[in-house]
Description:
The complex is a heterodimer. In chain A, 28% of the residues lie in helices and 14% in strands. In chain A, helix 2 (128-136) packs parallel to helix 5 and helix 5 packs antiparallel against helix 6 (208-215). The two termini of chain A are 34 Å apart. Chain A is globular, with a radius of gyration of 22 Å. Chain A has helices spanning 55-66, 128-136, 156-163, 179-183, 190-200, 208-215, 229-233, 240-253; strands at 22-31, 41-50, 85-88, 91-94, 109-112, 119-121, 124-125. Chain A has eight helices and seven strands. Chain B is of the alpha/beta class. The longest helix of chain B is centred in the C-terminal third of the chain and has 25 residues, at 510-534. At the A-B interface, helix 1 and helix 3 of A face helix 3, helix 4, helix 10 and helix 13 of B.
Amino acid sequence: xxxxPASKVELAPDVAGxxxxxxxxxxxxxxxxxxxxDEAHWDEWKLTMYGTDRVLDALHKVKxxxxxxxxxxxSCAHGVCGSDAMRINGRNRLACKTLLKDLDTSxxxxxxPIKGLPVEKDLIxxxxxxxxxxxxxMPFLISKGHEPAKERLQSSxxxxxxxxxxxxxxxxxxxxxxxVFWTDGQYFGPAAIVNAHRFxxxxxxxxxxxxxxxxxxxxxxxRCRTTFNCSEACPRGIQVTKAISEVKQAILTRKV
Amino acid sequence: xxxxxxxxxxxxxxxxGMRAAIESGQRAHTAVLxxxxxTRSHTGAAQGGxxxxxxxVEEDNWEWHTFDTVxxxxxxxxxxxxxxxxxxxxxxxxxxxxxGLPFNRTPEGRIDQRRFGGHTRDHGKAPVRRSCYAxxxxxxxxxxxxxxxxxxxxxxxxxxxxxxxxxxVDQEVTVDGVTRIEKRVAGVVSYDLxxxxxxxxxxxxxxxxxxxxxxVYKTTSNAHTLTGDGMGIAFRRGIxxxxxxxxxxxxxxxxxxxxxxxxxxxxxxxxxxxSEGERFMERYAPTIKDLAPRDIVARSMANEVREGRGxxxxxxxxxxxxxxxxxxxxxxxxxxxxxxxRTYLGVEPYTEPVPVxxxxxxxxxGIPTNIKAEVLADNxxxxxxxxxxxxxxxxxxxxxNRLGTNxxxxxxxxxxxAGIAAxxxxxxxxxxxxxxxxxxxxxxxxxxxxxSEGGERVAQIRKELQDVMDANVQVFRTExxxxxxxxxxxxxxxxxxxxxxxxKGKRFNLDLLEAVELGFLLDMAKVMTAAALHRKESRGxxxxxxxxxxxxxxxxxHSMAYKDPSATETSGVRLETKPVIFTRYQPMERKx
Lengths: 256, 592
């Protein structure tokens, strides 16, 4: 694995690209502000953007140069904090991870709040119901017996068992893409199940049975209709539907 | 106006804030105020790992870690603090493992460790495997694990509550017949984003854990929300800021974007090349090459570009080469950062080198504290009940240049210490009475921003500030560039009094908050530049081309920047010094 790299190499002549071109897009944003009106409406702007710009850059351009009242959450701007999940051209995605050039820029780009959670203002939704479901599955390691003096041992294979579901950034892209969640606000939703999976399949955890019991509830995993929306929506590439079916399987066999 | 009463109020819900909350919440009535949601904080963007001399994969001990930290900081580190951090690192990693953090494992099932810049075996002999990690999302896993444990312990969060002021009162204290005036903490003033209402939080202890100030720069790895609020509030309230001239530029930001590619890439064997394909770090740091500390690597990269060996159409970046690594190894150890290269630049790291350039990353300076995380009002006077930890603080374990992984360590070690100390203080102390009209100044600040109709745009002023900081207060500095920066900042400050905030509503008014944040950014840019002007030497992250040598005789001291309108030469920032604490290491020439 460890070979010392060469002190000098020939680089390919075209290494790492040329100039980044600019292009024009039309951005349409679903607006709602109950301070002003009970009705939602669409606003649109024509913008000149650059090749590496993302939907978040377009939203910033609108907010910073055209209309400061356009409201959305964002923080890290590179897909790790989970603040800016929104519906972009009908699909749940992170605005900071969606490059404009990867969308069809010949048509207006439609940006709406994620569905199934109450809209507060423009693209900002009330996240509390989402986090409530998350908290209900006891998202923390519960381990019986003595605290070890050093670390608990865990093999790489045991760790791999739940690696995928540790990637979750709680952005709600999956949960708010789920048709069952849209119609049934009581359903735990994919994100809560993903986070339950993360502990149920962790060899260090002793509370898998309790979590399986919680998810065996009528608002638990059995509401899932396996539409795969959640897996497609996940900006972290988590195989959400697979995780949910593994939890279903574990409930049936009581074996993890 | 609503008034809340807690024993302990923690400002910020990143790693330091939540680590403090886990301790404080179990001992005293505690609230955490955060301008985001807890799992949104920028701790989650940290990638590479957290160093601790566990010696799981090779010989190591915490004394070597201490030495590396002191040398990495170019001897400006307070050595008592570095000892505490390196010693308690081991327990801090084990704490996280017990809380459930999914560290990568060795074949024996123990916590795996890998190499990182500046971390060496036996005082610089060779790189050592010291960084404990979870793929290249260690910060994400720390943030999630700490939040999970806050849920477990029912920690009370006030989400999207912006703290905008610190309430302090002067009290007369008589000790041994001598009467003096002492600053005491009464609480904080906070703005609820959802409603636009101000809330007063009365508290016996206040812990600042509100993070850094990377948004003073244009090219930065920092989140949009890292606007130096905590540092700014303290500074405005008369608390000095320590070592603000030292800002770290991380060598490997995605070119043009600033998005971070972890040093773990180089820890796993990636190397830097210039436009000629040369592994140039062999010239700058012959022993540990690409794993030299960040200040040295960043300067070397900037120098390659200056001397015309930059790659790309504008010859303005260098290349991070992973192509000699096995794709399977890259996937296992560096999945996120290789995806960043693909997503944002369309570069395939298996086969193509990745364009990178230094990106503004981390403030070594901040609110001065001692090793108990108590905030200092001057060189040695503790402010009872006031604590700070993490990037907002300067304890100082990073000196003039932080080693990679030591920030995740800092937040865990000093976050824990701050949480315990704040709770213990609250259990013995009384509430300090809230001053009359506690929110008056905050209301004035907000009303001024809301009602001003001068037509200046917040975003435009911020952009010009970031441009001037990138151009003049970056990796290389001179008196001339720094004076130019101060001059521009002064004019921007004047324009800032004439801004117009377009959103006039109360509900989720982020337009208004961006205006408030810009005020903090302007203050902090001024402090950073004035401190850089004051330090006429080169040390760690601060390189003065007009004073290229380290000058221990005149500058082996911390800087302390005070708000002082009479200091007109330096835009209202007065600079004093504070001695460095030495225990066992005498300054040596810093070579790698």
